[in-house]
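Hi C.,

You asked whether I'd gotten around to modeling the 127-residue construct. I have! Everything is below, sequence then structure, no commentary in between.
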Amino acid sequence: MSGLRAQLPAVVLVVEDESFVRMTAADMLDDAGFTVIEAGNADAAWRVLEDRDDVGVLFTDIDMPGSMDGFVLAARVAERWPQIRLVITSGRCRPRQGDVPDHGQFVPKPYLISQVLDAFEQAGSSP
């Protein structure tokens, strides 16, 4: 594992309603040395977070079905679990100022694994 990945939390929760996109992201992160948990929407992700205490990064899409989108999920995670790094992605919209919690990062789709890893690192460098 490279120096960068050695400093990052090992467990990443990938939240994406498009199964192919979710599987692709999970495979890229797995190949980069992370343990990956997958959720098809924010409600499923919330249940995972309530059941586990080892998630270090939330990597979530914005547009999803269910009771909350990626912005709401990220805000709630930041409030309840401030130690979790937040990285939000979308191919359809760009966040406005205030949409992403202060320490969160945005990565536009399509993305490269290097962009995602940079966002993971940057998300952890802010308070």
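If it helps when you're writing up: The chain has five helices and five strands.

Thanks,
B.
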